[in-house]
Amino acid sequence: MLTDVTAFAPATVANVGIGFDILGHTVEAVGDRVRLRRIDEPVVRIRAITGIAGDLPVEPARNTAGRAVQAMHAALALDYGFEMDIEKGIPLGSGLGGSAASAVAAVVAANALLDEPLPRLQLLKFAMQGEIVASGSAHVDNIAPCLFGGLTLTVGIDHPRVKQIPVPPSLRCVLAHPHMYLGTREARAILKTDISRSDFVWASANLAGFISGCYSNDLDMIRESFNDVIIEPQRHSLIPGFKDVQRGAMSAGALGCSISGAGPTVFAWAETQYAEAVRGAMVAAFAAHGLQSDDWISGMESYGARVVKA
Amino acid sequence: MLTDVTAFAPATVANVGIGFDILGHTVEAVGDRVRLRRIDEPVVRIRAITGIAGDLPVEPARNTAGRAVQAMHAALALDYGFEMDIEKGIPLGSGLGGSAASAVAAVVAANALLDEPLPRLQLLKFAMQGEIVASGSAHVDNIAPCLFGGLTLTVGIDHPRVKQIPVPPSLRCVLAHPHMYLGTREARAILKTDISRSDFVWASANLAGFISGCYSNDLDMIRESFNDVIIEPQRHSLIPGFKDVQRGAMSAGALGCSISGAGPTVFAWAETQYAEAVRGAMVAAFAAHGLQSDDWISGMESYGARVVKA
């Protein structure tokens, strides 16, 4: 029986520009690791938080990973407990799904330590409890791809259905994370509560075109549909230089470029041969606005969160 | 050189419940026919309208088929003309894309009479000119499937992109057309101009799930996504008994049931083995509300509008 495992969970790009609150995809190049030990005492505790840690709370109920494992622990009425070490690889408040990754890595690790591990879909609701600590509401658009891998659609909250959508294999995700903090709550608070019917139709057409393009490997359709007419126009002013970063990415050959999750990270999709140029253009545009940035080029194919050491 | 051709154009279900103004699919079981003769005089004229004709105008500029061919005739600056006979098979104001079918059949017939026929995508804009006569605005969600066949997504108006989406081959469309008239203008006029962000997210999830389900032959995903939370709740009261018809269809095994186009025709998707029961339930529910109805069970695969006699 396993008593000590480490799980890795990848960063995720939520919304993917055209799928607000429903789409997300993994970024294999960066992620969080959570090590869990099974302990006799029936409690959940956090021993240490390392890596790009910021000032994350170590009190389990206030920590996304701690809260997620607590939810699982309570639901299963376990008579043993877990002690965890969290190693943050995803910058806080970056829009790369860091809170989801910690929560998912923790429940995947905990699941491996159960006498009878649960099916992956059942882990979703525990990880969501962790996400509530971070964002104030239950969202699965980071958690579902983080858990399942690749590009995923999640439909529904109470009984979420998860659908994995194929990404054309010639594509890469390019990310530029400017060194600034942007809170998810703040980025949600500025959104209007209503949408015009004409924007709704336009957004629907783009969403449908994007998904059709992914299924049919139709890069032209993906490019022409890769345009968020609802959220990006309301949010981009929170990110200095966003429009220049986007223009730079598109000029360098990206299929599309928008805000990752609630920002400030900006992501682009590009064919492999353009990815380096797109990265250079995005980083340069942020620099011109006085912002240094971390950057990654990553595949989007992934097995999702997984035990990496047992 | 051809001088006398007849084209058939199928009926269409626009919106398909979850794709307002962007999705539509063909119904092969019913359609309009337009016969065109090339004439020396450089004009477009309508000789006769037969079939389920109602009181359609024979003045070309006020007739959808006439206006569509006029638009084509003007754009190509032809030095000869066309005389047409229109045979209506699609009831007027039924929500089955009758005006689109007449316009599409007419331009497909006219195209066959050109010295150098145009690619099909170029016919779209001429047929749209006809649709404007009927509905007061340019919509392509009936025209695109009618012209191309099957389930189609149309993105954009000025330079529309058309994408054909596969429909699982085990599915049939069941239609019940109650004997009442409902104008497209009226059915559009009652729609609110704004949508809440939460409904937008819900509708997006359903649209994305539906399209993913079609591509991946995932009937469960289609069933769970087949729920129009935006338009149907605003429109269904225009159709007496709609809720009972929908409940009847779903109880009989339909995957989904909603309003065809602007109504009053109600359509359902069902696996072949349930189609007869779904039809019976829908017709009985309308009858219980004092409405006789025409009904069809139809495949959705189609080559779209085509010359049937030359």
Shape of chain A, please? globular
Task: Count all strands of chain A and give the number.
Answer: 12
Largest interface: A-B, 38 and 38 residues
The percent range for strand residues of chain A is 25-35%
Instruction: Give the helix/strand class of chain A.
Output: alpha+beta
CATH class designation of the largest domain in chain A: Alpha Beta
Distance between the termini of chain A: 10 Å
Q: Helix count of chain A?
A: 10
Oligomeric state as shown:
homodimer
Which helices and strands appear, and what pairs or packs with what?
2 copies of one chain form a homodimer.
Chain A: E1 4-14, E2 23-39, E3 44-51, H1 64-76, E4 81-88, H2 98-113, H3 120-135, H4 143-148, E5 151-155, E6 161-165, E7 171-178, H5 184-189, E8 194-196, H6 197-216, H7 219-225, H8 232-235, H9 242-251, E9 256-259, E10 266-271, H10 272-288, E11 293-298, E12 306-309
Parallel strand pairs in A: 3-4
Antiparallel strand pairs in A: 1-2, 1-12, 2-4, 2-5, 5-6, 7-10, 7-11, 9-10
Helix pairs in contact in A: 1-2, 1-3, 2-3, 6-7, 9-10
What does this structure look like?
- The structure is a homodimer of 310-residue chains.
- Chain A has 310 residues and is an alpha+beta fold.
- Chain A folds into 2 domains: 4-164 and 301-309, Ribosomal Protein S5, domain 2, CATH 3.30.230.10; 171-298, 2-Layer Sandwich (Alpha-Beta Plaits), CATH 3.30.70.
- Chain A is 37% helix and 27% strand.
- Chain A has 10 helices and 12 strands.
- In chain A, the strands form 2 sheets. In chain A, strands 1, 2, 3, 4, 5, 6 and 12 form a 7-stranded mixed sheet that branches. In chain A, strands 9-10-7-11 form a 4-stranded antiparallel sheet.
- In chain A, strand 3, helix 1 (64-76) and strand 4 form a beta-alpha-beta unit.
- The longest helix of chain A is centred in the middle third of the chain and has 20 residues, at 197-216.
- Chain A is globular, with a radius of gyration of 19 Å.
- The mean pLDDT of chain A is 94.
- Chains A and B meet through strand 5, strand 6, strand 8, helix 6 and helix 7 of A and strand 5, strand 6, strand 8, helix 6 and helix 7 of B.
- Strand 8 of chain A pairs antiparallel with strand 8 (194-196) of chain B.
